[in-house]
Fold:
Amino acid sequence: MSNPDSYSTPNSNGTRQPASAPRVSAPSRPQQRPGASAGTVDAAQRPQGPGQGVAGQRPGQNPPGLVKPAPRAKVRRARLLVSKVDPWSVLKMAFLLSVALGIVTVVAAIVLWTVLDLTGIFDQVDSLLGTLAGSEGGGFELKKVASLGQVASFAVIIAVINVVLLTALSMLSAVLYNISATLVGGIGVTLTDD
Structure:
């Protein structure tokens, strides 16, 4: 009994003819140079990546001696004009800064009086004034004229006056700046990005 797969379809004569075996082509290999081993591929045929400058080098490596320096960042500059100052924000900032300055004034006056008292400056001033005035002058005491309470209250009064004056003057200066900025354009400021 014959194998049915070995025959093809009938001819025009009606007879069956044996089918020819299908040809299987061998896998194509890249051409080799004479004398090269069978496992190596020509370096000219090997695709190179963007980082491969020399054949056989790993991707991402630069060839020796060709290291690129890091690019220097460009310094950005912006020229701006201060064309308007908000008087309300200037008023708030000036008030807070003048209150801080008033507190510093009161504390400094109290500390200065305490230092003068501890070092004995008041007693030396009293003795100096007693020698200048003579024994008839009766003793003059500076502590009674300028006591700690009087110095502290005087410093508080000066601090309150400074708060009011500095706040009003700073707001007035902001309004005057806005008026003058409409005429000349304002103050130019150049900002750079380090």
